[in-house]
Design brief:
The protein has a single domain, classed as Alpha-D-phosphohexomutase, C-terminal domain (TATA-Binding Protein). The protein is about 30% helix and about 35% strand. It has two helices and six strands, in the order E-H-E-E-E-E-H-E. Strands 2-3-4-5-1-6 form a six-stranded antiparallel beta sheet.
Length: about 100
């Protein structure tokens, strides 16, 4: 499994996680609470963990193409859904 991660700034991480998960849950399985979330995409899965003013996002996929596809989906949706907290999504590979 390949992994990548990013950190999103959020003034209210619990609300931001809920907003993202509710959006994606219309098409893919998603589970969440105030502190954690897991979304299962066809290309891989994404886990989110809330901190005081941020969200750690960890994505896992079987290969480079699937991971890139997963990142692209999140890159398109995060700025639209978390527009209150201007986002600059920068992915880093996780060894």
């Amino acid at each position: 499994m390949l992994q990548s991660e990013t950190v999103l700034q959020a003034s209210n991480p619990a609300s931001a996680i809920a907003r993202l998960c509710k959006h994606f849950s219309h098409k893919v399985p998603a589970e969440w609470d105030e502190h954690r979330a897991r979304i299962q995409f066809p290309t891989g899965d994404c886990e989110m963990t809330a901190a005081e003013e941020s969200i750690h996002v960890l994505c896992r996929a079987a290969d480079d193409a699937a991971l890139a596809s997963l990142q692209q989906v999140l890159d398109r949706h995060i700025p639209k859904l978390l527009w209150r907290d201007e986002q600059s999504v920068v992915w880093s590979a996780v060894p």
